[in-house]
Design goal:
The protein is 38% helix and 17% strand. The chain contains eleven helices and nine strands. By secondary structure, it is of the alpha/beta class. The chain folds into three domains: 1-35 and 87-127 and 173-245, TPP-binding domain (Rossmann fold), CATH 3.40.50; 37-81; 131-167, SIR2/SIRT2 'Small Domain' (2-Layer Sandwich), CATH 3.30.1600.10. A hairpin with a 5-residue loop joins strand 4 and strand 5 (141-142). A six-stranded parallel β-sheet has the order 3-2-1-7-8-9, with helices on both faces. Bound molecules: zinc ion. Residues 135, 137-138, 140, 156, 158-159, 161 line the site of zinc ion (ZN).
Length: 245
């Protein structure tokens, strides 16, 4: 951990322990310490171009799914799914805060289910989850294992329709219920901790506009557009930081 971060930990601890209704809003950076690469990072972009000849924004779009499902599933299975990944210190710290009654909700843009794996209950999955799959024709539900074990395009056992992840693709809208839950939680919060996101992806990043509580804390390796608004900015890895609290 950077020396500067170490100095900020007592302040972060004080803010967290004086909050009555904290909410955590997280992005890809929360999962990178669990070995899940960020497909939007520079190396993620490079990898997609080199191996698949396209940008991740296309490979994970509704257009790609509709026009080239074989390519979509190849990229999805090889890059978005990590069944063996384990929660890290950030996931465990947040689960603990919830158990202690300090944290009322986690709003995540990740689809890996690692918050639930760490024991968190109130999780708004803005972009859906890899762990839920469904048939586009008859809506039958399937497991992640089911689609991973099928070669090429996964098909429904019952009707032959394509089975796809319940994950929000580019060009698709966010699930209404999750969005409303996230909005309600953020509006009521007295502390909002934002971690592992550069706040570049809208509309999710716009959720911050609805926060009017006392303390905004940003924990991210790089700068974000909201840094100026925050009471505390920590430029470090989220797992190490929350783990130290
Ligand atoms: Zn079906």
């Amino acid at each position: 951990m950077a020396a500067s971060t170490e100095k900020q930990i007592p302040k972060l601890r004080e803010i967290i322990y004086s909050a009555k209704n904290a909410v955590f809003f997280g992005g890809a950076g929360v999962s990178t310490e669990s070995g899940i690469p960020d497909f939007r990072s520079e190396s993620g972009l490079y990898h997609a171009r080199q191996i698949y000849g396209k940008k991740p924004e296309y490979l994970l779009s509704h257009s790609c799914f509709a026009r080239e499902p074989e390519l979509f599933f190849r990229y999805y299975k090889e890059n978005l799914v990590a069944r063996e990944a384990k929660p890290n210190a950030a996931h465990f710290a947040l689960a603990k805060f919830e158990e202690q009654g300090r944290l009322s909700a986690i709003v995540t843009q990740n689809v890996d289910g690692l918050h639930q794996a760490a024991g968190s209950k109130a999780v708004c999955e803005l972009h859906g989850s890899n762990w839920r799959q469904f048939c586009v024709k008859c809506r039958e539900k399937y497991s992640l294992d089911y689609i991973m074990e099928q070669e090429g395009i996964p098909k429904c056992e019952k009707c032959g329709g394509i089975v796809r992840p319940e994950v929000v693709l580019y060009e698709e809208s966010l699930p209404q219920k999750e969005w409303n839950d996230a909005l309600r939680a953020i509006k009521r919060a007295d502390l909002l901790i934002v971690g592992g996101t550069s706040l570049a992806v809208y509309p999710a990043a716009g959720l911050l506009e609805h926060f009017c509580g006392a303390n905004l804390v940003l924990i991210n390796k790089s700068e974000t557009p909201a840094d100026g608004r925050a009471q505390l900015v920590i430029r470090d890895a989220i797992g190490k930081t929350l783990g130290a609290v």
